[in-house]
């Protein structure tokens, strides 16, 4: 497959995962069952299935995937939320020679089902076996792998070792023919240093590494993505896609996109609802800086990224700095721990005591969050008198 075939494509379609209970794999058909390679698919379903190779950084990514995908090596995909890690995992499977299924395991959902009181080691070996059985001669995708509790990581590692031993047997080497792809928004090296991710499992997974840049660092993809989402969602609304003029396109390109591709798709979806059928203007874009940018579109440089003041976060952080000065003057014995306690407690309260949402809000893994909650006495222990899955109110 030539680089031209890759980089000329704007968007590819991949079959979406079925909804499945936590711990159960989400299965997608294999190559023979409906996942096309580059240049042959239809338009994608949403940001999770959208790949664009217009920006030079994305073209370099396409070349890397073209080299890695045909092999059987394990791959770790890292990047911020909304950058398209699941889409890249599907792409790796789609252009490989594997004929089995693409099986997605949501590790965050699996972790949510773990009984905290049992040390993160529920009866999971059968679940791991189901994952591998479903992905025979295909790809097993571990989404947000850093969310797996350490106990589960050990069981997964043992399953991997057993599979490798089985492959070494001449009698039936295909019985263990599963390719592993993992995705993470967490820096696994930091998780290893903190004792929340096993080093031996990391080395099993981290044969090839793919890093996805945030959308603000590959602005050349914005126009192609916007055009794709306009066409896709206009068709779903049974509307003709409105024209995207120069000013709204410049506003989209200039925006910092903290939510990455997912945010861009939502902006386009909203704009289609409020724009007339003929033209999409800047005022139809639900962006922090879009309306302010409209009046200066003729003079503002498009390629310039917005300053920190444009993001709307500078003022609150300046206020925080003012509050910190008196604390520095009278720090007490445990200032850092006290501040950490306050931040974690307030974030936990803000999310309604939801661990997954709190971890995402603070930009840490759920394992790290659980350690902090225990450290500061905020962790809710499950009632031992209740069986059958009931939890104490948190």
Sum up the structure in keywords:
394 residues; alpha/beta; Rossmann fold; Helicase, Ruva Protein, domain 3; Arc Repressor Mutant, subunit A; six-stranded mixed beta sheet; two-stranded parallel sheet; 16 helices; flat; disordered N terminus; disordered C terminus
Structural class: alpha/beta
Strands of the largest sheet, in order across it? 1-3-4-5-2-6
Radius of gyration: 23 Å
CATH superfamily of the largest domain: P-loop containing nucleotide triphosphate hydrolases
Shape: flat
Strand content: 5-15%
- CATH class of the largest domain, please? Alpha Beta
Helical percent range? 40-55%
SS element count, helices: 16
- Oligomerization state: single chain
Low-pLDDT windows of residues: 1-22, 27-49, 119-126, 289-314, 381-394
For the secondary structure, the number of strands is 8
Number of domains: 3
Please state the average pLDDT score. 74
* Annotated CATH topology of the largest domain: Rossmann fold
Cα(first) to Cα(last) distance is 53 Å
Encode the helix/strand succession as letters: HEHEHEHHEHEHHEHEHHEHHHHH
Named at the architecture level, the CATH assignment of the largest domain is 3-Layer(aba) Sandwich
Give the biggest beta sheet. 6 strands, mixed
Explain what this protein looks like in three dimensions:
This protein has helices at residues 3-7, 56-68, 85-94, 107-112, 125-134, 150-168, 188-193, 199-205, 222-236, 246-254, 260-274, 290-294, 314-329, 335-350, 355-362, 366-375; strands at residues 26-28, 75-78, 102-106, 139-143, 179-184, 208-211, 243-244, 279-280. The protein has 394 residues and is α/β, with parallel strands linked by helices. It has three domains: 3-213, 3-Layer(aba) Sandwich (Rossmann fold); 217-311, Helicase, Ruva Protein, domain 3 (Orthogonal Bundle), CATH 1.10.8.60; 314-375, Arc Repressor Mutant, subunit A. The strands form two sheets. A six-stranded mixed sheet has the order 1-3-4-5-2-6. The longest helix is centred in the middle third of the chain and has 19 residues, at 150-168.
